[in-house]
Amino acid sequence: MTQGRASAFGELDIWLARAGRHEELYSKLGAHPVEGGVRFAVWAPNGHGVSVVGDFNDWLPGVDRLEPVAETGIWEGIVEGATVGQRYKFQVGETMVEKADPMAFQAEVPPKTASVVARSEHEWSDDAWVQSRRAREPLDGPLSIYEVHAPSWRKGLGWRELARQLAPYVNDLGFTHVELLPVMHHPFSGSWGYQVTGYYAPLSSMGSPDDFRFFVDHLHSKGIGVILDWVPAHFPRDEWALARFDGTALYEHADPRRGSHPDWGTLIFNLGRTEVQNFLLANALFWLRSYHADGLRVDAVASMLYLDYSRKAGEWVPNAFGGREDLDAVAFLKEVNELVHAREPGVISAAEESTAWPGVSKPTYVGGLGFGFK
Question: What pLDDT does residue 90 have?
């Protein structure tokens, strides 16, 4: 681990990270190639020591230790000689459990679980499309959406060939948009993408991150918008991923009455924690910016809104006012919609929500959740 290089975290970065409002958190955390090596950074406030292991150091523990960044809970360092394409994980805490990078831009093809150092070389050709989208209101025109599970639409296709075959099919049928079941990395194919382990990496079994950028770019060139399913409600328990990331309930609630999902066997994000909010808020912007997505369809909103969702009496904890509403989730959903619409005009935000919750698709300034569609 190289010492003496300046930190990637300036005073403003540190302030925003502490406040949980760093909209480009992905530009600081994760693995970023720099001159002569790769800069690694990860949030693990209870880690009591973090090191990075990978192809660059023969996966030897403790060789490349990271240093704490102020009092943010973030660990950072540069590994000289590390390069794009190499695999890595973080070793966190006294047990030195190897964890995939929560901010990794690329993941190994399952069943392997390491993160991969990545750098995009894709040159976008959809400037006109993006400018046109930013200038229009989705509610003002016709909208017809074709839902697609990418790995099984025509099995065996990668992102590039899927783009070439899907675009004419969608155009022939007269759809304006494709909605993809979650493309965020998920090793368990049986989840259809709804058990995400890599929130910042597209599914690697269909190609590289730039292959997926080609997919979006190509559909835009054919006049087709791309909406992504997004899953901020819960995540799987895989021990190499987010679960108990630094040896504690970091991303999830510690109390199983709040942190364990009774239907899906997954863990529930602790949206009362500013850093967890930040992880997801930045993630929403990341897919809209780095992959030029035209919208997000937020999955399982109902499970986020109600503390007693699928729970019997005594299996849930009321809010501060004695009610069943998850006030942290409500505040988060309002904020993500305000942020998305303010930063990326013209995008679609849709809630998959099946209850009688009022104002799901009303603006937040009149008490709604702020979604454009339900």
Answer: 97
